[in-house]
Amino acid sequence: MAAAPGGGATVSVKLTGASLPSQQTTTDSSGNYTMTVPEGVYYLCASQTGYLISADSVSNASGNQTINFTLTAGRNIPQMDQLLFAMYGTSLSANGATTNPWPLEHPKGRTASIIGTPTLATVDSLQWESNRYASGDGYTIGQYSAVIPVTGLTATAVIQPQGDGVNGGNWTSIIDVMYSRFILGIRGTDGVLRVNRNGAWTNGQKTILTAVVQPDGTYVVYANGVQVLANTTPSPFTAFIPIQNGAQDWRSYVNLGRNNGDGWATFNGNIGDVFVYKTALTPSERKQLEADVASKFGITLPVLHTITASAGPNGSISPNGAVEVVEGQDPTFTITPAANHAVQDVLVDDVSVGAVTSYTFYGVTAAHTIAASFIGTGGNSYADWAAANAPGQSPGEDYNNDGVDNGVAYFMGATGIATNPGLDGTNTVTWPVSATFSGDYEVQTSPDLGTWTNYTPKPAPSGGNLTFTLPSNLGKQFVRLLVIPN
Known about the structure:
mainly beta; Immunoglobulin-like; 4 domains; eight-stranded antiparallel sheet; 6% helix; 37% strand
């Protein structure tokens, strides 16, 4: 097989009529592969990221056979071996009404049959399928009888919605898998997405719409690379199960542009390229696919920056995790302590901004971090602090294994400090002092870590800190803070 330099192409074999490959293998560095299959009639195809999917080869397996493929450089499409189907607008008939079936880009050799009277639209010199609600337009990818195992799903479609002002009460399918197993749609009156929470649109705007469904059923929807919708409620998503019981055969079809039953869910607008995967693409794979489609259709994707938000124990920050923000936006993060706790500190790019409960990044132009920590407020005693922050441990233990005894952490008002403060370049050490600390303390020195001496006069806190400078006449010394909490 002639493939990309270095091999690594995927060769898939499936019985005719089957929806999933029965075997797959990867070519070696020379582009060679071997397979052993029982006798039968098979479809074979080869694929590799950055290359066009090969045409299917139909073979009646009997004895040894040599089947060669040639892969030519093409689009930068990830995980092509995981596609359920893919369709390109440029594969449509170039003459007015699309009276011919729409050839699938994957699997090669198959076509999508016409429903209604879809036509051909040319936008910026590229071909799109023009789908209209009034005539119930769409395409049937196929009817399935066997269960299709999946590990989540990714569906990407480049669309140009056209408001019709008619079907405002209906959801309108761009992609419909087995009627209601998966739907990616946009309403024809106001552009609300299929899950009616926060959709937005500009009539006639070219948009890359992507839905990524995880195996646990949670999903995120993106418009031109920006998250517009999310659902965190789990609902296992590990198979497409067709339903064929006569009256509900429409639950066994995969469609484009409308549902298969009565057509009341017909999308109104133009449809360009479409990709439906049997797996949830990673963020980098999704971006790779969207960048490819954007390049083809002349769509400018926004510049995104990541703000990484985190919260320590006993509180939360929202939004949380890696948050992608469009350049120039002003995202606000809300910090919420748990019951009997307060915000201790908020660090933005590792610099304290104080114990704030919200923070806004204005005019974002780069990546940032924001981290919140919390402290118990149940009372002023060590027992109160330990119950809230250190699972009731004694002052001499180290509940979070950061090298700082619980008693010192209590003195400093810390629930998760990174290090025990040490002498700086001027032989000075500084401990923050919690306003709620109750008890006694000593600053001690030792020349050998064996004998410790209380330093006199004992330093007193000032400005919320306890500061101690080691006198030069003491020579080399170890310094520690001994806390005697109440």
